[in-house]
């Protein structure tokens, strides 16, 4: 039995919000909804939810702005970014602002619920697309120029490649003969490297390859 | 009340007399606040001006009348005009104190009034605007001529002043007018570009999105077709919105795969999620890889029983790999079934070009086909 999670939904399409609400598993309670950066910030401060499901693009700004305004005084709140299809630089920006993961809107209700629980537990959630972005960002040739951008270990790269291939954590663990916990810690390590690496290098990368 | 009449009060509007921290009526304190200088300094200037034939005192009274007490409070029109009049008198007093004679002052005032009249045509319709401009020009010309005449009467030292004065007068009329024309033209150009852009977007939306929506309505009872239509539209829009750097530079692996898999999506009504890292120009071998990938995705669409296939493309230093994964029925790879499709269109095709394929599958766990093709040695 999974523990109860309190979720705030920040997303400007009302119909999509309704869809998400109806698809999430019963252990995830949507305690609040906001459609803009300006509404989201006080709402999240007020409600102090476990997880915020955050659209990358909002009418009055991007998801990174919400995280930036709230993260410092609500450290317990975890952010999970989602979007329909974005330029790599936008997605990377939200991750770097502190989101614990990124999923696309084509995700199924079950997978989304799973992702919410995972993020609430402190794990990182990488969709195949995010894994692709990250692999690209850390490609050996590009990072050599910047010592600040830590290289991924071989294991981390393997894990990311399997995520990009559509494997789930459990399947990755079985494939690489690791425990699921170890897989999770590899993904978290990648997330940390992504958040700490030089902004300049990543931006340059993202601009060069507008991967969707 | 336009142009000058609008611009001066606009600057004026932020000026106000200050209620707190005032000594007399708050004029100096207010000026100091708006211009961000020490109030004492402003008071000193007024005091010095007071020595110039009393200009400071008159100016103070004029400002008192013209300025509202604190921003927002309205001042009656009559009171404002009286105030501005007094300010002009103060100006003339100050100029006289500096040594400029009436002969310069009054014509200058006339020219200024003419310039004001000349520019106040905005908002009037054609004929009246023209008459207004003519009137303004006449007043300016009158001022300039009287200036020239009085100046020449005053003797030789003014002979330079006369033409300069005329030039200044001319500049006063024509300058703002030309400036305004240029501004209007710019605004027009921006508007034209905007209209053009909107038309482009509208055309694009009409050709694609609206057409698709119409098709969707017509095929409302065929969910597969609706999904395929929506998917194709999504792909098109995405390509348009985010551009596609890889494909603009001729044929690449990425572009070819996207095209091929889009076809399969449409044909079989499935959804293919492609994730790619890296790209490389398309050659004969990679074309074989694309065809093999197409076949693998088609197999997944036909046999797996799921509508979702994920494809991961990776271009590394030495080879390009494509992983086609579904979470469908799967099969037992050791069972002697008819695997002609896989063997012929995938394995042999790749092998002929130096590549290979690996199929992983288990019943109920889905299937993954891994396709690999070495890249041509650097040519």
Fold and architecture overview:
The complex is a heterodimer of chains A (212) and B (379). Chain A has helices at residues 14-23, 37-47, 63-70, 88-97, 109-120, 128-137, 140-143, 154-164, 169-176, 180-196, 199-208, and strands at 5-10, 28-34, 51-55, 57-58, 61-62, 78-83, 101-104, 125-126. Residues 140-146 of chain A have low confidence and may be disordered. The N and C termini of chain A lie far apart (37 Å). Chain A has eleven helices and eight strands. In chain A, helix 8 (154-164) packs across helix 10 (180-196). With 212 residues, chain A is of the alpha/beta class. Chain B is of the alpha+beta class and 379 residues long. Chain B is built from 13 helices and five strands. A five-stranded mixed beta sheet of chain B has the order 1-2-3-5-4, with helices on one face. The longest helix of chain B is centred in the middle third of the chain and has 58 residues, at 161-218. Chains A and B meet through helix 6 of A and helix 9, strand 1 and strand 2 of B.
List keywords for this structure.
A: 212 residues; alpha/beta; two-stranded antiparallel sheet; 8 strands; B: 379 residues; alpha+beta; elongated
């Amino acid at each position: 039995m999974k523990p109860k999670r309190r979720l705030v939904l920040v997303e400007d399409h009302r119909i999509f919000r309704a869809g998400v609400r109806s698809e999430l598993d019963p252990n995830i309670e949507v305690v609040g909804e906001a459609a803009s950066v300006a509404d989201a910030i006080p709402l999240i401060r007020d409600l102090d939810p476990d997880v915020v499901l955050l659209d990358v693009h909002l009418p009055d700004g991007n998801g990174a702005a919400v995280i930036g305004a709230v993260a410092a005084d609500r450290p317990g709140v975890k952010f999970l970014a989602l979007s329909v299809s974005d330029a790599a630089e936008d997605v990377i920006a939200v991750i770097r602002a502190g989101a614990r993961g990124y999923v696309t809107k084509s995700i199924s209700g079950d997978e989304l619920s799973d992702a919410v629980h995972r993020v609430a537990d402190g794990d990182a959630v990488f969709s195949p697309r995010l894994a692709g972005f990250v692999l690209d960002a850390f490609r050996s040739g590009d990072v050599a120029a910047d010592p600040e951008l830590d290289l991924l270990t071989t294991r981390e790269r393997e894990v990311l490649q399997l995520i990009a291939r559509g494997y789930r954590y459990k399947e990755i663990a079985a494939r690489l003969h690791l425990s699921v916990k170890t897989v999770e810690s590899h993904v978290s390590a990648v997330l940390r490297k992504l958040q700490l690496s030089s902004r300049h290098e990543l931006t340059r990368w993202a601009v060069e390859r507008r991967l969707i | 009340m336009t142009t000058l009449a609008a611009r001066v009060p606009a600057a004026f509007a932020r000026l106000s007399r200050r209620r707190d921290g005032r000594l007399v009526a708050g004029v100096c304190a207010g000026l100091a606040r708006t211009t961000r200088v020490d109030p004492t300094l402003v008071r000193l200037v007024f005091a010095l001006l007071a020595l110039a034939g009393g200009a400071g005192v008159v100016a103070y009274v004029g400002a008192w009348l013209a300025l509202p007490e604190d921003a927002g409070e309205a001042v009656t029109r009559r009171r404002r005009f009286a105030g501005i009049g007094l300010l002009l008198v103060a100006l003339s007093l100050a100029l006289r104190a500096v040594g400029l004679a009436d002969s310069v002052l009054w014509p200058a005032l006339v020219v200024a009034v003419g310039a004001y009249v000349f520019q106040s045509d905005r908002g009037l319709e054609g004929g009246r605007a023209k008459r207004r401009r003519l009137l303004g020009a006449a007043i300016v010309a009158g001022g300039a001529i009287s200036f020239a005449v009085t100046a020449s009467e005053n003797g030789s030292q003014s002979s330079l002043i006369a033409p300069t004065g005329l030039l200044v007068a001319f500049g006063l009329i024509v300058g703002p007018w030309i400036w305004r024309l240029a501004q209007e033209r710019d605004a027009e150009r921006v508007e034209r570009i905007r209209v053009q852009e909107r038309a482009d977007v509208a055309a694009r939306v009409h050709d694609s999105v609206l057409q698709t929506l119409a098709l969707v309505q017509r095929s409302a009872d065929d969910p597969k077709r609706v999904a395929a239509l929506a998917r194709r539209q999504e792909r098109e829009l995405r390509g348009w919105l985010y551009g596609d750097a890889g494909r603009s530079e001729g044929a690449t692996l990425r572009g070819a795969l996207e095209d091929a898999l889009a076809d399969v999506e449409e044909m079989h009504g499935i959804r293919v999620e492609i994730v790619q890292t890296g790209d490389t120009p398309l050659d004969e071998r990679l074309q074989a890889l694309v065809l093999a990938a197409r076949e693998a995705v088609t197999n997944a669409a036909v046999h797996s029983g799921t509508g979702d296939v994920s494809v991961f493309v990776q271009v590394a230093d030495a080879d390009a790999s494509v992983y086609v994964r579904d979470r469908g029925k799967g099969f037992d790879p050791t069972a002697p079934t008819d695997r002609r499709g896989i063997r012929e269109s995938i394995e042999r095709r790749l092998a002929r070009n130096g590549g290979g394929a690996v199929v992983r599958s288990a019943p109920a766990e889905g299937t993954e086909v891994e396709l690999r093709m070495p890249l041509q040695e650097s040519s």
